[in-house]
Request: fold
Amino acid sequence: MVTIREIGLNMAEKVTPKRAIVVIDVEAQLIQPELPSKIQHPVLRNLRHRLLAVYQRLFSVVFLANLAAFIPLIILHTTPTLSSVASLATPIAVNFFVTGLFRTEYMINFLYTSVLWVPTSVPLGIRRRLAKIYEFGGVHSGAGVACALWTVLFAVQITRGFLWGEPISIAAVVVTSCLLSLLVVIIGVAYPEIRRRYHNHFEALHRICGWGALLLYWALVLLLSRDISNATATPFVQLLFTSPVIYFLIGSTILTILPWLRLHRVDATATVLSSHATRIYFPSPTVGPAQGIRISSSPLLEWHSFATIPCRSFTKTSEIAQSSSYSILVSSAGDWTKHAIADSKAQRKYWMRGVPVTGVALVVRLFQSAVVVTTGSGIGPALSLIAAARSPNVGKGRDVSCRLFWSTPKPLQTYGQNVLDEVYAADPNAIIWDTKAQGRPDIVKEAWNAYSDFAAEAVVVISNPKVTAQVVYALESRGIPAYGPVFDS
Reply:
């Protein structure tokens, strides 16, 4: 049976050789199935999908594991001897290393690659849980907070030991206090509301304070080793390299330096689409499906992450696209993006570092079919997602069927005909909702309609954090597998 939505698309094709924006008749909504009721008790579903989502569960596992070791140490190590104080440096080093490890591009790419080897013949219940891999940031934040907790205990004990006459140098006490101060700043600016409101400041402080903490920790370990060497007449080098602390510190240092060894400037060509958006093309052939890049104009201060759209995935609509490997879509969302749009130069140079990092979009490869719901400039990551769904080089060569729903004001005027052509090349039956002409849609209802009509296995939501969280929760609370980026994903 042909639905009104399909009739609207077919009629549009007769009017113009270009694919037209689909305008959905409000009355058509009457024939759509009702949105199902939420399942489970409100308290239970809020616990499961909000307070104890996968991110929070991972955070809790890491933090509680540390707490299980932390509490006995408080009880048993009441006397702050030099050796007991030094032993507290090990859990700090371990957590410091884990914190950095789960933010490196190599670890993130490894995590995504690992789950993509799971075949779609595996029961959906297992695949829908594996698709939550993008919430791995809970390990990063859990280890970071645990590191600060251990440093608090360390600071208390080293200060007590110094006051009680242990052979601890004043320099070690001062360095510990400075280290703890930096960790408090790092955790403070990472609080979601502060991070969201002062994002550029967060990036700079988080990075610079992280570097400072690593240097201070090196200084602390060297000072403690010297103090122990002087007190026990044990060779300094022997003390240093028989402790596990030094190896975790070396690992943390490598993780910190490695991305900067690949710091380089790249050429780019920008095409301004409107006063709200611009598209930037890059010639490099090294970016895979659903991978993102970080670019910067001031590499020490700020970095900006974007999903890449492979130029050869859909259509060849311009000479720039034909000579490029991939592009990114930049919309007005802050000072840096506004400047990138207002810049009149077509030929530009940007800094890049590290390697391209896999994004949330790649979880679509765990399903046989999926609905992609996006708003505004989220169409960039959405196109990257669909390109990944079709890629023969990802996820054992699986091909994933995708239905696209895109809600945005004035899509043609804002993003141009080329982007619309790519949308329809990606999904000939894509639904584009013009919010200026049609008003704001009930995204949850539209996602449910597309999920039901398309008989999809999952819904992937790409929007701003507030809308993403609301839509994902609304669908998950109705038993629909839904996914969307979170902090640290």
Observations:
- The longest strand covers residues 264-272.
- The CA atoms of residues 103 and 284 lie 24 Å apart.
- The chain has a mean pLDDT of 88.
- Residues 199-232 form the longest helix (34 residues).
